[in-house]
Specification:
The complex is a heterodimer of chains A (350) and B (170).
Chain A (H helix, E strand, L loop, with lengths): L1 H5 L18 E10 L12 H18 L6 E4 L5 H9 L5 H4 L6 E4 L5 E5 L5 E8 L3 H18 L4 E2 L3 E2 L11 E8 L1 H5 L3 H9 L3 E4 L12 E6 L7 H26 L4 H18 L5 H16 L8 H10 L2 H8 L5 H16 L1
Antiparallel strand pairs in A: 1-5, 1-8, 2-3, 3-4, 4-5, 6-7, 8-10, 9-10
Chain B lengths: L13 E7 L2 E7 L1 H6 L11 H5 L4 H6 L16 H7 L6 H5 L1 H12 L19 H20 L3 H18 L1
Antiparallel strand pairs in B: 1-2
Chain lengths: 350, 170
């Protein structure tokens, strides 16, 4: 497990709490779904064809010049912890990590660009940026898309645009998503209404690792629900409007939590959460996420928490199960992981 | 003490929040049931069909009914199979099922015409003769299967695809 994980830096740029509104938007991602003309989509292709797709994809990524000193993986060569590590870094999906097909992943050295190979589509390429940064993420992802599109003939039609295995991705093949931290709206019990209103705006909310994953620590992955019938820029503008609106709602909710008699209850919850993170002797990932969510909110509210705001972001990344095992340098059973997590936090937050 | 919603026996210790179809759903399970359903937090993922039933039903409701023989001219994927799984098999499926997909796109995207970036094509692949030979063999097998099922319409389409392949690869 060591080799792959050691090749990555412990901290990543897209989690450095930069960009706009980093206290509410952890990161922004733009991804394109693409297929190579002349090959069946991965779910219906022979393993040998998929190996050829992977070979072509790696060559195109190398040739793009956008991945200097990049990482290239054949996922079947990685162990469970290494695969999980890539999921936790948001470079590959859970579906790719558990696929039985010849799959691959390419990750740029500073980890802002990555390409998944042979997931549901031949290519899923993405750009990740810290904070609220739709334009920057879109610009970089587009550059990568254009480079790969020059090197490889992509499946495209005038009527339906870029062709994908699932009809929900066809057209631009683009998803713009923001990982939003919405603890105040959650605490005030407003998330059901917020999610309901999002569905009328062509936007969908998912769990922390994307489709089919849990909501942990009040983090929601918000993305456009459709990709056909508008230009890429229009989809970006729509997401921009929706996210700005969501930020306004979260700000209002945070103000409510600090007004009148609510304030002492909010402060109490925040500092109890911080106390738990600092002094617990065993802490599951779920419990960690619940409490770091409150502590992160407290730091953003300026409640006098001495932990640097971006430190919370990096800790959120480092306390994930595979990252814990990477830090320990060996596979750990869940109980041992919980103890290791508590120890780490005590040393680093205390 | 809250009991597991699945076995109603053990104490529920796994509390999961899921965002599905823009609704937050909560599940309270014991460790054993959560693990059995592959829903342990260690994987960070849940099996969506366990929670909201089979999602492919989503397509079933939106796709028009067609005669059973309709299949893709390039790869032979049956329309009925697409309707079941919600996944297409190749780029050619889009032209083979164009009328049905046009209707589906209007439902799911609110539009059925791409208005985004125009793609003018990338470098042609230097395909080795091996994939073409394999493709020919796959098509021949699909033709034999269609004939055996007396699905002559599908067989004729596959034969056209085979002819097209012979032309392009000599």
């Amino acid at each position: 497990m060591a080799d792959v994980i050691k090749s990555f830096r412990p901290c990543v740029a897209w989690a450095n709490a930069g960009g706009a509104w980093p206290d509410m938007i952890f990161s922004t991602r733009v991804r394109f779904a693409r297929n190579i003309e002349g090959f069946n989509f991965p779910g219906h292709a022979e393993p040998r064809q998929l190996e050829e797709v992977r070979r072509l994809a790696f060559a195109a990524v190398r040739g793009s010049g956008l991945f200097p000193r990049g990482h290239y993986f054949k996922l079947e060569a990685l162990d469970q912890v290494e695969r999980r590590f890539l999921v936790e870094r948001h470079h590959v999906s859970h579906a790719l990590a558990t696929s039985a097909l010849p799959t691959g992943a390419a990750v740029s050295n500073d980890e802002d660009l990555s390409v998944m190979i042979n997931e549901e589509d031949h290519l899923r390429l993405q750009c990740l940026r810290s904070g609220f940064a739709i334009d920057e993420a879109f610009g970089s992802a587009l550059k990568l898309d254009e480079a790969l599109g020059r090197a490889l003939p992509l499946a495209y039609g005038v009527k339906f645009g870029f062709l994908t295995a699932c009809p929900t991705n066809v057209g631009t093949g683009m998803r713009v998503s923001c990982l939003a931290h919405l603890p105040a709206l959650s605490r005030l019990g407003r998330m059901p209404q917020v999610l309901e209103s999002l569905s009328h705006l062509g936007v969908t909310a998912r769990g922390i690792y994307g489709e089919g994953t849990y909501v942990l620590g009040d983090f929601y992955q918000i993305s456009n629900a459709t990709c056909l019938g508008r230009s890429e820029e229009e989809f970006c503008r729509n997401m921009d409007t929706v996210i700005r609106n969501l930020i306004r709602q979260e700000i209002t909710a945070r103000e409510e939590l600090l007004a009148g008699p609510m304030r002492i209850r909010t402060e109490d919850s925040v500092f109890r959460a911080l106390g738990l993170l600092k002094y617990a002797r065993s802490l599951s990932y779920e419990e960690f996420m619940q409490n770091v969510s409150l502590a992160r909110m407290g730091a953003a509210m300026g409640l006098g928490i001495e932990v640097d705001f971006s430190a919370f972001n990096q800790i959120t990344l480092l306390m994930q199960p595979a990252h814990i095992q990477a830090a320990a340098g060996r596979p750990l059973a869940p109980e041992a992981r919980d103890v290791f997590r508590a120890d780490y936090l005590r040393k680093n937050l205390g | 003490m809250k009991l597991c919603e699945e076995c109603h026996k053990a104490q529920a210790t796994v509390f999961l929040k899921l965002a599905v179809n823009n609704k937050v759903t909560e599940a309270h399970l014991c460790q054993a049931c959560a693990a059995r359903k592959g829903m342990g937090l260690e994987t960070g993922a849940f099996n969506i069909s366990d929670i909201v039933g089979n999602m492919s039903g989503y397509f079933k409701d939106f796709l028009p009914s067609e005669r059973k023989t309709l299949c893709c001219r390039s790869c032979g994927l049956k329309y009925s199979e697409f309707k079941e799984t919600g996944r297409l098999a190749c780029a050619g499926c889009y032209s083979s099922f164009e009328p049905q997909l046009t209707e589906l796109m209007a439902r799911i995207h609110g539009a059925s015409q791409h208005t985004g970036r125009v793609y003018s094509g990338g470098a042609a692949l230097k395909r080795s003769p091996a994939p073409a030979a394999r493709r020919r063999e796959e098509l021949r097998a699909a033709i034999r299967e269609a004939v055996a099922k007396e699905d002559f319409e599908c067989a004729a389409r596959l034969r056209d695809a085979l002819k097209g392949l012979d032309k392009s690869h000599g």
